[in-house]
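Researcher: Here's the sequence for the chain we discussed earlier.
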Amino acid sequence: MPGRLRTSFRSGNLTEDLGLLLLKGIAAIADVPRAEDVGLDAVATLLRRDTDGNCYAEDGFVVQLKSASAMSLEYRDHELSWFLGQSQPMFIGLVSKKDASIALYSTLYANQACLALHARRITILFGKSESAYPWAGGAEGSATVWLGPPVLSWALAEMDKPAWSAATYTTLKRFLGIARREFALLSLGQSSKLEWSTNDEQSIQSPHVSMMKGCPDGIQALADKCIPGVSALLLHAMSLPDGRGDPLTISLIGVVENLRDLNVNVDESAGALVKMSLLSMVSRRSGQGGQGVATKEDRDRGGPQTRLGPNSVSLGERGEQSE
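Model: Thanks. This is the structure I predict for it:
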């Protein structure tokens, strides 16, 4: 309406503008225009300040900004699907106009809760849970999640201090690396025990995997995520001198062939790499005048002619069939 603006809208705009300014103390910020706002307020890139006088762009992350007076947030239905679909580490920034400060909360515990509880609706609270877990299940597929302490908290007055800039960079850099590892684990149906304190790089820990539920999308999706790693290990095994990688090669080929026995589609490049690995190993051993073709280690491990499953042929036979 011309000539007026809701006071609450203006207050929210000022809070968001202050939050963006505070974020610019640690990152390059692409703020989201209101016309394009579907939930994120900032797309950020962590900046490293170098002694050469330049700022170097590094890790990306995204931020939702809320007033420090916010007590809770709720995600359900398409909102929750959107939340879980974020591919970059996500933070909720609580902004205080009174103190000209921001507290940056990671949302990783919410991702873990949805995996653990199969939640269809979550309520997010700020701060630490009093129980052993940062989440609790509720009725009808709901869950309450405590986000833990903020990873970082700072005020406008601190942003010009070189010591603050250096400490903030190293803390967030460490956390973002662990967050990306956690995203990879979550995609495999696993999660780790995450711990951190505010503004403390050394407190950020992910000591071990604490939950394993299997891949929620089934074995084909799990294989699609793992095969590139298997292929990389095969290439590395092939590069080792004097046949040192042969036992690893045999084991990895066995993994691929057993996946096929389970009717898992293995992409063509991985299949070609398996054939190349097998032929390379057989060719090398043939070139040794038969030496090592059936070593004691091979016999103990089953050797390249081992049958790998009830419906499988031997690796040697598979190599002949693929030619």
